[in-house]
Amino acid sequence: MIKVRSKGITDYQKTWEEMKSFTEKRQLDTPDELWLLEHKNVFTHGLSGKPEHLLKETEIPVITSDRGGQITYHGPGQLIVYCLIDIKRLGIGIKKIVSLIEQSSIELLSNYDINANTIHGAPGVYVEGSKIAALGLKVKQGRTYHGLSLNIDMDLTPFALINPCGYPDLKVTQMCDLTDNVLSISDIQNELSQHLIKHVTKS
Questions:
Q1: Of 30, 32, 49, the residue nearest 136 (C-alpha)
Q2: In degrees, to the nearest 5, what angle opens at C-alpha 120 toward C-alphas 118 and 121?
Q3: Are strands 62-64 and 72-74 parallel, antiparallel or unpaired?
Q4: Cβ atoms within 10 A of the Cβ of 159, count?
Q5: Whether the predicted pLDDT of 48 surpasses 90
Q6: Burial of 161 per CB tally in 10 Å (0-12, 13-18, 19+)
Q7: Could you give the residue numbers annotated as active site?
Q8: pLDDT tens for residues 51-96?
Q9: What pLDDT score does 72 carry?
Q10: Average pLDDT of the chain?
Q11: What pTM did the predictor assign?
Q12: Contact yes or no for 113/179 (Cβ under 8 A)
């Protein structure tokens, strides 16, 4: 069983603290959860994030968190899916859960006639070489937190202030620029969570 929680637009720091608390307090039989939300404008570094990947100082706050990966941007119009999953209980490793999240995203995008793919050695989801979804997880005692960000209909200009995920000149894209379908973040939340639940419960 996986619980799904929709949290609206939230503060990054506050939500991060809530994820850490949930993960530290959960028991062997605590159900896994997916948290679906958007963040207020923020740049986030992963644990190994290099400061030079922020190309220009702005008023947008910069937070170094405990997820994997380099710098990325979050803002309204981008769907965040935090994956609080006991992979030890499932008997799978970090590479497998990353693959399941990527595959779920690709299937979701396919529903909107967007042909997406992965790139070996560069976690996330891409459309014709442009990144549409970023992925960074933290594993603690066999449980994951953090997760996926999917660009739906947002202001992409802050990405020009960084090397997205540590890659100079990496282009980013979003769903609204790639499909004529009507986009509803609440619908996409529901659809993506169903894809994730299907893959994770089958693993």
A1: 49
A2: 120
A3: unpaired
A4: 21
A5: no
A6: middle
A7: 165
A8: 999 999 899 999 999 998 899 999 999 999 999 999 999 999 999 9
A9: 96
A10: 96
A11: 0.96
A12: yes
Regarding beta strands 32-39 and 2-10, do their DSSP bridges make them parallel or antiparallel, or are they unpaired?
Answer: parallel
The type of residue at 32 is: D
- Identify the CA nearest to 3 among candidates 25, 26, 34, 38: 34
Banded pLDDT at 146 (limits 50, 70, 90)? very high
Tell which residue, 183, 193, 116, 195, has the closest CA to residue 152.
Answer: 183
Tokens describing residue 198? 């299907």
Token pair 């769907």 in the structure block, residue: 79
Q: CA geometry: angle at 44 spanning 43 and 48, to 5°?
A: 140
- Tell me what the mean pLDDT of segment 33-58 comes to: 94
Task: Say what the alpha-carbon torsion angle 178, 181, 186, 191 is, to the nearest 10 degrees.
Answer: -80
Report residue 156 as tokens: 């992409």
CA 161, CA 171: separation in Å to the nearest integer?
A: 12
**CATH number for the domain whose boundaries are 2-202:** 3.30.930.10
Q: What is the largest CA-CA distance in the chain?
A: 45
Q: Which two tokens stand for residue 15?
A: 């939500």
8 Å CB contact between 42 and 73: yes
Q: Nearest Cα to 118, choosing from 103, 96, 107? A: 103
Cβ-contact 148, 101 below 8 angstroms: yes
